[in-house]
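Let's practice the habit of predicting before peeking. Look at the sequence and jot down your guess about where helices and strands might fall. Then scroll down.
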Amino acid sequence: MRVWRNFHMTRLTDSVRAPALKTPETSLLRRYADLVGRGNVRWDVPLAPHTTFGIGGPADLFHRARSAEEFCHAVGTARELGIPSFVLGRGANILVGDRGFRGVVIRCDITTLEFAPEGVVVAGAGLDTFPDLINATVARGLGGLHHFVGIPSTVGGAVWQNLHFLSPAPARERTMFWEEFMESATILTPAGKIRTAPASYFRFGYDYSIIHDTGDLVLDVRLRLEPTPRAELRRVMRENLAWRDNSHPDLWLYPCAGSIFKKIQGIGAGRLIDECGLKGHVHGAAGIFHKHANIIVNHGGATAAEVRVLIDLARTTVARETGYELEIEIGMVGEF
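Done guessing? Here is the structure:
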């Protein structure tokens, strides 16, 4: 019998193909499918197409939740049955194991968007920040989120990681953070309660919010943006995209998960890896990006195992040659 690991953290066919193997785990998954509706789930779904890395084995069960009510029901059902679950957004900043995820992956697809007076915007957690949210706010002459153009994330992921970017041009003297524009969020607590939490609750930091530790899940976010001339917003967007193109991979050509290691203040993890001569190093179909050494890219058909070889190589080499310890930033999901 396989061992399940506890992890907390898409129009679908009407038919559901269940695994042939009859185990206690399969019985629980069948029960889950019955409770949430068998037409809403799929079995044995490869996760690679659902991540920006393009890497990852299958989830036993995949559920795309299209509303807050469906999402809360899905999460609550998995918790009640004791089924390992993972909440998936855009699939950025994660590496899914080659053996996939044993349990249910719940795709948050809450894509609601409302505009209110005085620059207030309420966005569902599953809405893509770019292009959907940013383009919609810029079209209405509302500024703030335009700084984050080009970064793959959902609204929920933006809260999770306190989305940030060095902006605006040309000076790029400070980092703009998601927290600067967020007033509150509706969250689902681990106890199954829905409540509104002010921005202060999240204790935002660099690549951090309190939900890393609490297990809260974001349902929607209330933002307050500033009226800004559209021409100014689009100018900043063009400059930010051009700046990103000089150092960050185009996901269509080089699928990746973003920065692999956490920032080392005043030094930079990428700079250390580069100084050790590892920029451009390739293992199998995975490679350390030739423009940014803190990014590993998928050259086509890369496996999670190949990526992990490069991660280990960077950590051991940097520690040996510089004395610095690199800390992994991306999430490791599933079985490797």
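How did you do? The first strand starts at residue 41 and ends at 46.
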